[in-house]
């Protein structure tokens, strides 16, 4: 098994110790699989906070997009992984970056009923009701902070 295959398996399974060892041996944390997923995408989608932290500290691109435009924060939002969303927000992930189809992490959280994830995204910073590039034409200003009962 190649070092990148070992890294893919370790990030998917949440084996932080092995991830650290593989990084020390020179594993490329930016390497993409056939779908464009990086090690951070895999760790995030599976909610492995320790592995995510290791990868972020090693310089993983927190806003990298896979083939259809999902970023790690989109994956976490779509899966309702609040601790992962919070970690990515703390490390300045772009909460506004939409997928290629225009859907944002907020959309992913709300569409799947993850209200606490949606709350975290809303409270993270300015969010627009459409892509910021269109703001001058037909977007509303950033939404206000929210809390749930």
From TrEMBL:
SMART domains documented for this protein: ANK
Each ANK repeat, start to end: 7-34, 35-67, 68-100, 101-125
This protein's UniProt keywords: ANK repeat, Repeat
Matches recorded under InterPro entries: Ankyrin_rpt, Ankyrin_rpt-contain_sf
UniProt cross-references to PROSITE patterns, sorted A to Z: ANK_REP_REGION (PS50297), ANK_REPEAT (PS50088)
Superkingdom of source: Eukaryota
Any Pfam family: Ank_2
Protein name: Uncharacterized protein
